[in-house]
What does this fold into?
Amino acid sequence: MEQEIAKCVIIGSGPAGYTAGIYTSRANLSPILFEGIQPGGQLTTTTDIENFPGYPEGINGTEMMEQLKAQAMRFGTTVRPQIVEKVDFSVRPFALTIEDGTTMLAHTVIIATGASAKYLGLDDEKKYAGMGVSACATCDGFFYRKKTVAVVGGGDTACEEAVYLSGLAKKVYMIVRKDYLRASDVMKQRVFSTPNIEVLFNTNTVGLFGERGVEGAHLVKFKGEPNEETLDIAIDGFFLAIGHKPNTDIFRGQIDLDAQGYIITAGQGTATNVEGVFAAGDVADPHYRQAITAAGMGCKAAIDAERYLTAHNLK
Ligand code: NDP
It folds into this structure.
């Protein structure tokens, strides 16, 4: 039997992937979308989305992603709950190895694999994984009702997670390495006006301790300075919110990445250095990283893929 060749394969199921699905299916490209490790992407691990146009009251992240998925499927996007494990962009059509060992061929590929939470790199983060260490307050906050937790980071994510956790936990520490929060004014305001959040500025975490799970953190204040001091805090949960790493491991050596591992796209478009391969969303965007910008890039990638197929008589 001759192997099926997809006109367009989309890898990833965040706002970029589903928007690419909506546009490519409406352009009759019968796209196949692989959901990947985290169906719905990062927004399924956030609380309410208040800044996506069209939702004046805000919307739950998981609900929004279900709506985007339904919209993509309505126009003919085939959504597969599988992971693409390997790609070969040196052959045409492109060859993709799926987790079940099968191969999928595609004339165009839209990469929308997003980014994942970063960790500090402490051995204790691994030691206590699932035993008090988490990178998702919305997923795990429930376990810390009336307990004490710490959130590491001083950006919007850290503030959002701290405010969310403050509604569940008895007390929330924010561990911030600088002497300021880099978050937006509105988020800073929310943190400073929440009585059970205590911000520890100029503070780094050097370890965790506990018998059967996290019971506390070893901290250093003013690290490397004359007034350096160590202190321990008692906590039950330790939440990381220090930024993200692009999910590009399977593309290494196949397409051009920048020093941080983000996919490099040409100019204002979504074309990568491999003709016929496009990138959209956080995987190619170290600057904006918003749901709405990811969706916009997904739309651009779909239009770029459609134009490529037309120009090469592959439609
Ligand atoms: P950011 O990169 O903005 O912030 C990361 C934070 O983690 C910074 O405070 C940084 O410290 C700290 N950090 C990084 N590495 C370490 C480390 N090794 N040890 C200790 N602290 C560390 O990431 P976010 O995920 O917060 O936000 C990403 C983007 O998404 C931003 O543009 C943000 O505005 C946006 N966003 C918007 C939201 C909204 O509008 N509702 C919600 C969430 C995110 P330092 O400042 O010292 O570098």
About this structure: The chain is about 25% helix and 25% strand.
